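Structure, all two chains, one model.
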Amino acid sequence: MKSRWRSLPTAIAGGALIAGLACYPGEVSTVQELDLSLAIRNPNVPESDFQNIVTYAMPDTIIQMYPDTTDNNPPELSRLYDDYILGQVASHLEARGYQRVANPPDPGSPPDVLVLVTVTARSFTGAVWYPGYWYGWYWPPYYGCYYCGYPPGGYWDVYQWDQGTVQIAMVDPAAPTDSTIQLLWMGAVTGVLSGVSSTTQARLEVGINRVFDLSPYLRRN
Amino acid sequence: MRTLSCMALALLAAGQLAGQSIMRLTYTTSAPVGATKDYISEFSWLGIMFEPGKFVRDNVSASMTFGWTVLDEKTDDPVQIGNAVGAQGTQLRYLNVFPVMAGLQLHRQNPRGGSVYLGLNAGTYFIERRTDFSVVSAIEDNWHFGVAPQLGVIFPLGYGRGHGNIDVRYHYAFEAGGHEYSWVSFSLGVAYGPRY
């Protein structure tokens, strides 16, 4: 009987060793754990500038972006969550004290900023054209005419985004002087729309919430 | 009288330790401290240490330490990159630590077998720091100079040369690649070799 008790520490040590080595730390267990929210402020724009914003305009459509393609009819991602995404973005901006104005805005009384929501419909790396505010974005036929003629007033940007990444861009609507529009801020939720499932809406909610949580400076004074 | 007899027996027994080898194999858990805790705060249950050694004097042993410890944490903490970019998502953070050290232990023998020891180890740690963020992994490998003071006890199990071993050690890996690390390990295992 005594020898059994004496062997207990050895048994414990051996058992713990085997158990410990058997369970290597956790890996990603759900697709939600691959979602990543990003908030990027233009480093040339001080945080205090966002306190002076009062009004914004936002199209009621989410633009799906494609890499350069010869396909005249590239397949779209599901638009099942477009209204939900736009509603979430509008809700957050309203909570931060920003006032939404009609879209398209009155050219004689432009909003302080434009908020443009896009989704990458295909994973790609490369340059993408954002159409200008003054042409194309608010007036047909931009939507559905991918890369339609590169109207003046837009800007190029370089990206590497996963398919289904939601991007929320806040841009300065001031008339561009050098064919570029200044990006003030951008939020992104990567990959969340790459497929549609029962968890998509919850993932969108978490992802968009995080984008705004990461941007506490987005607040009207 | 009985105490004196015990002390005499202990001294006699101590005289037999010099030259004897000792090998310790322990299961090791770890608690991050200091700056390491800012990166990974969770207690680690994954580690092993193998320490061959020899009594160079009756109350002094010299040893080598080889081991593997994994500290890890899954977190959703937001990350600030510079002053303009914030990111948040599930991060898997790992520290894979491989110590290769030499050490000296000063033993105080127990008349009934075993000993309590105080030691100091010095050498290197190879540390892999890995952060998985969404589908991106950032991996940094560095060799660190390090020291590890230790306190432990070897206790009899009634198996002749086989003993139990409990060891507590503070590990400090000096800065390399912009990171320094410290943690406290708690080990439980077996020591084989000396006949007390």
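Residues 3-14 of chain B have pLDDT under 50 and may be disordered.
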